Structures are given as C-alpha cells and as structure tokens.
From TrEMBL:
<dbReference type="Pfam" id="PF21730">
    <property type="entry name" value="Vma22_CCDC115"/>
</dbReference>
<dbReference type="InterPro" id="IPR040357">
    <property type="entry name" value="Vma22/CCDC115"/>
</dbReference>
<protein>
    <recommendedName>
        <fullName>Vacuolar ATPase assembly protein VMA22</fullName>
    </recommendedName>
</protein>
<dbReference type="GO" id="GO:0070072">
    <property type="term" value="P:vacuolar proton-transporting V-type ATPase complex assembly"/>
</dbReference>
<dbReference type="GO" id="GO:0051082">
    <property type="term" value="F:unfolded protein binding"/>
</dbReference>
Amino acid sequence: MAAADLRAELDSLLLQLLWDLEELESKRVALNARVEEGWLSLSKARYAMGAKSVGPLQYASRMEPQVCVCTSEAQNGLQKFRVVRAGAQSPEEVGPREAALRRRKGLTRIPEPEVFSASPNPLNWFGILVPHSLRQAQASFQEETLKLQMVLEMKPQMEATDSFFLGLLVAHL
C-alpha cells in the first residue's frame, strides 16, 4: 500500500511540475512579446520624431527609475520579489522630519533648498507633445517589469518542487 501511495504522490508532484513549467513558458512568451512590442513602439517614435530626437542626448543627467524590483528572503528560504513604483514612499519618508515638538510661532526657519528631482514623467525629456508610440513603449516596458516579477517568483517554487520530487524518488528507490 505504501508503494501505491508513493507512486500517487510522485505522479501528482510530476504533474504539478509540468503544469508550472507550462505556465512559466507561457509567461515567458508573453514577456518576450511585450519586450518586442516596446522596442517596436520605440522604433516608431524614433521614426516619427526623427532619429536624433529620441536618443541618449535627450536623457536627463540624473535619471531615477520609475519602477524597481526589490528582493527579500521569505521565511521558507525562497526569494520574494516585489515591484515598487517611484511614487511610493518608503516607511522612512513618512512622518515628521524632526523629533521635537512643533512651535506655533517663534523661530523662523530658513527653507531647505530643494534637491534636484527628475521630472515625474521621463517622456517630458523628449518634449511636451510626444508621439503616442513613445507612450506605448513606456507602458510596455513598465508592464514588462510586472510580468518579470511573476516569472522570477515561479522559478524558486519550481526548483523546490523539483528537489522534493527528486528527494522522494531517490529515497524510495
């Protein structure tokens, strides 16, 4: 009876692994299609605006990403990926800047000089009226980051299932 249970468990693990592999492949295909779409839109924008209007000379000298992928270690040892947008505040930025009590009137403060901040939308580097294809390219590359997060989260889960499957197989041979 134990051998039948072992075979059933191995079969279910193998099926789960194959389903995950199929889902991973479909997400990779969608990711590649989105990347190709982004580059095609960027090419269309270069054609519409002129090759010299969309290029490295128009980039800001200080660039900051609008979307970042952050990694963290989960409790089970797997890596967890999280997409963070530039507009989101980190916990350190929330709250008062000083630990002291606020005074109603009294000391006049010298305003702090503003640090240079890049324009909220990098498309403004290329002018006010940019072609729609440039906006499509930006949206395509931002959505690609979200799909990349899903692909990156699937790989460690599949590796854990694979190692568990191989461990069961080797232990009962």
